[in-house]
Amino acid sequence: MNKPKRVSLKDVAHLAGVSYQTVSKVLNGQAHVTAETVARVQEAARQLAYKPHHSARNLRTQRSRMIGYSWSSTETEQPNHILHMFLTSMVSEAELAGYHLLPFPYREGQDQVTGYRELIDAGRVDGFVISSVGYDDPRAAFLAERDFPFVAFGRSSPHDNFPYVDVDGMRGLQLATEHLIARGHRRIAILAWPESSRTGNDRLTGYLEALRAAQLEVDPDLIAHGEWKYEFGYAATQRWLAAPLEQRPTGIVAVSDIMAIGALQAGQAQGLTIGRDLAVVGFDDVPLAGYLQPGLSSIRQPIREAGRKCVEVLIDAMDHPGQAAQHVLLPP
C-alpha cells in the first residue's frame, strides 16, 4: 500500500496563492506581510493539515526542538496539583510552537548544574525553563555564564537580568490578609515557608505589609515557618489554638493551599466552625479547595498562564538572541 503523500510547504503555498518562502516565514513567525496574508496562509495550512518536517528543519537550523525542565519531586501521598497544571500548560504551548518538553532529574546542592551542562554539551536541548528559583540560584548563574537560553519561573534577586516569569506572591498575601482585616480580624497568623525560600519571603512580606497598613501589631508568635505540607499546617494551628483564648488567632493565611487545608482541619478537630470561629485563606486555588466542606477561600495563582508565558518568553529569547531580557510579573 502506498503511503499518503506528505503535505509540503509548496502545497500550502499553492493553496494560499503565495510563495513557499512566505509560507515558511509566516509559520515561523518571521514574515513581514499583511494580516490578510498571514490569515490566508494559516487557513491553507489548517485545511491541508500541514505538519512541519522537524527532522529536515533540525538539520538546517541545528536545533533539537527540545526544552529542558527539571523539578524537585514531591511525596506520592501529596500530589502537587499546581506543578501538574504548570507542566500541562508548558507541554501544550511547546507543542503549538513545534517543541517538546524534556524532563530530567533534579539534583541538590552543587550538583544542580550537572544535568544542565550534560544536556547542553550533548546538544539535546535548545533552552531551559527553571523553577523553584532560590537566592543566587546556581543554575541561573551557570546558564547566564554559558550564554544559553533559559527562562526562570520565579525571581532570584531584585536585580535579575535574565528572563523570568513570576506570580506576584507578595500582592497575593496582601489580598488574603486584607480580606481578613476587612472582616474584623485583628489577630491573624501566617503559615509561611522556611526563611531560606525566596518565594516564601515574598509572600510573607505581603502579609506584613497588610498588617502595617492597617496599623496592626506584628506578633512573631503568629508567624510559623515550615515545609510545604498538610502536617505542618495542622500541627502549627493546633499549637496556636492551644494558647489562652486572648492569644489565639481568629484568622490564618497560608502561603499554600495544602498548608491551609491542614489549618482548616485542625480547627474543625477543635470543634470550631470554620468561617465563624476561625477564618482560613490559602494561596494557589488548587482544584481540591472547592471540594472541602466548607470550601477553602484562596488566592488564585494564574499557573496555566505562567506555564504558557514561560514557553513563549523562552522561544522568543531563542529566536532573538541578544535582546533585552523579558520580565513578566502576573497578578494573582
Low-confidence stretches: 55-60
Side-by-side strand order of the widest sheet = 2-1-3-4-5-11
What is the helix content?
Answer: 40-55%
Our estimate of the beta-strand percent is 5-15%
Number of helices: 12
The beta-strand count equals 11
Structural class: alpha/beta
The end-to-end span amounts to 55 Å
Radius of gyration: 24 Å
Mean pLDDT: 87
Topology:
Blueprint: H1 9-16, H2 20-27, H3 35-47, H4 54-61, E1 66-69, H5 81-96, E2 100-103, H6 114-121, E3 127-130, H7 138-146, E4 150-153, E5 164-167, H8 169-182, E6 188-192, H9 198-213, E7 223-225, H10 230-241, E8 251-254, H11 257-269, E9 279-284, E10 297-300, H12 303-319, E11 327-330
Parallel strand pairs: 1-2, 1-3, 3-4, 4-5, 5-11, 6-7, 6-8, 8-9, 9-10
Describe the structure.
The chain has 332 residues and is of the alpha/beta class. It is 43% helix and 14% strand. It has helices spanning 9-16, 20-27, 35-47, 54-61, 81-96, 114-121, 138-146, 169-182, 198-213, 230-241, 257-269, 303-319; strands at residues 66-69, 100-103, 127-130, 150-153, 164-167, 188-192, 223-225, 251-254, 279-284, 297-300, 327-330. It has a six-stranded parallel beta sheet, sandwiched between helices. Helix 9 links the parallel strand 6 (188-192) and strand 7. It is elongated.
Keywords:
5-stranded parallel sheet, single chain, 6-stranded parallel sheet, alpha/beta, 332 residues
